[in-house]
């Protein structure tokens, strides 16, 4: 995929899931690297950490149905 061109990232027009991913990357101090070199510049450990944090936050914000 060497010929694939990167599109510039518009941080203001992101889907909620992508927005969360970029917020977590920023918290971990990885956002500058992602913006400069793309997600491929991160190690599997770094991307796994982002994915784990995303899963925890989604689970914490999930709507729990009321028990009647």
What are the defining features of this structure?
68 residues, elongated
Let me know the average pLDDT.
86
Major sheet attributes: none
How many strand segments? 0
The chain-level structural class is mainly alpha
Q: In one word, what is the shape?
A: elongated
Order of helices and strands: HHH
- Catalogue the unreliable spans: none
Question: So how many helices?
Answer: 3
- How far the N terminus sits from the C terminus, by CA atoms, comes to 54 Å
Radius of gyration equals 15 Å
Which band does the percent of strand residues land in?
under 5%
Helical content, roughly? Answer: 40-55%
Outline the structure in words.
α1 packs across α3. The protein has a domain of 44 residues. It is elongated, with a radius of gyration of 15 Å. It is mainly α and 68 residues long. The protein starts with 15 loop residues before the first helix and ends in a 7-residue tail after the last helix. Helix content is 54%, strand content 0%. The chain contains 3 helices and no strands. The relative contact order is 0.12. The longest helix has 18 residues.
């Amino acid at each position: 995929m060497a010929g694939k061109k990167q599109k510039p990232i518009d941080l203001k027009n992101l889907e909620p899931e992508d927005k969360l991913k970029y917020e977590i990357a920023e918290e971990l101090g990885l956002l500058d690297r992602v913006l400069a070199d793309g997600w491929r510049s991160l190690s599997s450990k770094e991307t796994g950490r982002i994915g784990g944090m995303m899963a925890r936050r989604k689970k914490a914000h999930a709507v729990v149905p009321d028990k009647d």
